[in-house]
Design goal:
- By secondary structure, this protein is α+β, with helices and mostly antiparallel strands.
- Strands 1-2-3-4-5-6-8-7 form an eight-stranded mixed beta sheet, sandwiched between helices.
- Helix 1 crosses helix 3.
- It has a domain of about 130 residues: Aminopeptidase, CATH 3.40.630.30.
- Helix content is about 30%, strand content about 35%.
- The mean pLDDT is about 95.
- The chain is built from five helices and eight strands.
């Protein structure tokens, strides 16, 4: 069994590779902020009990090697505040998507920006990625400002790219960063 990865982002921010016992923190965070999260995270409405979060965690940590991705819990001042990680990594084409969510009380502290910087550096340096992309709903201003701030390029808009709650499709902006354009943060 391999050692779980921990990334010290700043003095206050630590990324710790997802483990089954994190399901409780994930569930309680989502459950206590349903209205806040459900606007942009469609899976919130399907998360009814801790078992649902446990099933999510198991789907990540028990994924077959060819589809497995690093996913991290975000701790800020030793408190669970959200998730960030890779998804849909294409090892052949050396590209990956980064997704993230953060509890409402911890917004506007630079937590996701700093965590994203650490993951971008990790993806290019340690994982040998060539391209990283982030997908954000057009209306999710806070989320899409992060890749903009970090020098990602807007590639375009996926029309009706994601089905959100209440069976409503939304357009998705796609931002990318290439290794050749990246200067380590």
């Amino acid at each position: 069994m391999r050692e779980l990865l921990v990334i010290q982002v700043t003095k206050e921010i630590v990324l710790k590779e997802l483990e089954l016992y994190d399901a409780t923190d994930i569930f309680h965070s989502l459950d206590s902020q349903r209205e806040y999260f459900r606007k942009w995270l469609p899976f919130v409405d399907e998360t009814h009990e801790i078992k649902d979060s446990e099933n999510f965690v198991l789907s990540v940590i028990e994924a077959p090697e060819d589809t497995w991705n690093y996913v991290f819990v975000i701790h800020y001042q030793s408190v669970f505040v959200g998730l960030i990680g890779f998804k849909g990594t294409d090892k052949t084409n050396k590209e990956t998507e980064i997704g993230y969510w953060l509890s409402a009380d911890y917004q506007h502290k630079g937590i996701i920006t700093e965590s994203l910087k650490a993951l971008v550096n990790f993806a290019f340096k340690d994982l040998g990625m060539h391209r990283i992309f982030i997908r954000c709903a057009v209306g999710n201003i806070q989320s899409k400002n992060i890749p903009k701030r970090l020098g990602f390029t807007l590639e375009g808009i996926e029309r009706d790219g994601e089905l959100l709650v209440d069976n409503v499709f939304t357009d998705i902006e796609v931002y990318s960063l290439l290794k050749k354009d990246h200067i380590a943060f």
